[in-house]
Amino acid sequence: MQTIRVDTPSAKYDVIAGSDLIQTIAPRIQRAIGKLPRRVFVLTSPPIWALWGEAFCASFAEPPVALFLEPGERFKTLGSVERLSREMLRAGADRGSLLIAFGGGIVGDVGGFLAAIFMRGIPYVQVPTTFLAQVDSSVGGKTGVNLPEGKNMVGSFHQPRAVFADIGVLATLPERELKAGLMESIKAGIIRDRTLVRYMEEHADLVLARDPKALEKVIAASIRMKAGVVAKDERDFGLRMILNLGHTLGHALEQATAYKVLLHGEAVGWGMIAALYLARQRGMISKTQMERLERLIHLYGPLPPLKLRVAKIVAASGADKKNIGGVRRFVLPVGIGDAGVVEDVTAAELEAAASYMLARAAIGIGGASDRSPLPHHPACGSAPGGSRS
Ligand code: GLY
Questions:
Q1: Residue nearest to ligand 1 atom 2, measured at CA
Q2: How high is the mean pLDDT of the chain?
Q3: Contacts (Cβ under 8 Å, ≥6 apart) of 250
Q4: 3.30.360.10, 1.20.140.10, 3.20.20.150, 3.40.50.1970: which CATH number matches 2-172?
Q5: In this prediction, what percent of the chain has a pLDDT beyond 70?
Q6: Pairwise pLDDT comparison (376 vs 146), residue with the higher score
């Protein structure tokens, strides 16, 4: 088990990464926040609750009140937040209540936002259940929901009181989601941690076989990297932007495919390949480094093949949230273990990077063949008590 301290101007808290945490989650939360309040709520998804609800409740003297959010981006809305707020009120929530977000990235983002605005803010704890949520979205306090006009367009910075990344719950995560999440760990290594890059190169077999020690190492290193960055730039005005390596064209790919073809991590994988090409053209990384990092991305593949026109991707990249005042921002690696934000990427460079990425995406190289349909959640029975979404 590893404990990583997150120390931001607005809050300080621990992220615990280790095996079998949820079975003893109540005393763990109590240790992190002090006495458990009278009313504890857990926001989760029906599939996660069906798989892990019993284990989760085992350590509570009085089980928390369960609130449900159906899986899928289309439920990440202000409407869901209103419904959940009303359910909490009807169940007796007050300003001293605690909310636990127990699920993937969507549950974490919606739960965090609900906690940020319910009665002007209540404490919450993150218990992420996907690899991607464990290494990225549960840490750092970004919360929010989508609007029809764009993803995460309404939200807030609200830091959790603690994060518990339980490696045990990853046992039921579909293979494709694990691999997609691992792209964020590759990103962590490229921008800040060359030891992590080396470890992921040398131990891909153990990581992909879900060896608990190997997973713990990769998860803890990824979180440590993010904690260090968030501590220096909690509100995302400077350094924190480097966490978006691969995201400019990654978001463009997601948007151009209507969020129906790629998991977020897969889009980031392709986006990192474009960023590596751009960095190579600018002399920010060597040919050897570029080839080495592309190999690493493909080692944790396959990334799904794509057939898209360059012009469509270039147009979609204009709508990126990182573009402030019309400036197109790109995060590019500087060697292995460092990165910078550039604001002067020309249209010709963008087109060349998109062409390079799409030429590779047309054949979808890397990994063993796994073309399972886009999963939102592990297939399993319905949640006890059914969904109240
Ligand atoms: N996922 C990027 C960030 O938290 O800033």
A1: 243
A2: 91
A3: 264, 267, 268, 269, 270, 271, 272
A4: 3.40.50.1970
A5: 91
A6: 146
* SS3 assignment, position 385: coil
For residue 326, the CA-to-ligand 1 centroid distance in Å is 21
Q: Classify domain 175-362 by CATH number.
A: 1.20.1090.10
pLDDT tens digits, one per residue of 261-302: 999 999 999 999 999 999 999 999 999 999 999 999 999 999
Which of 109, 151, 184, 236 most suits a substitution to test ligand 1, by most atoms within 8 Å of the C-beta?
236
Q: What is the pLDDT of residues 142-163, one digit of tens each?
A: 999 999 988 899 999 999 999 9
Q: Residues enclosing ligand 1, CB less than 6 A?
A: 136, 140, 142, 236, 240, 243
Query: Left, alpha or beta for 302 (phi > 0: left; psi -120 to 50: alpha)?
Result: beta
- From CA 167, how far away is CA 215, in angstroms rounded? 7
Pick the atom of ligand 1 nearest to 243's CA. Answer: 2
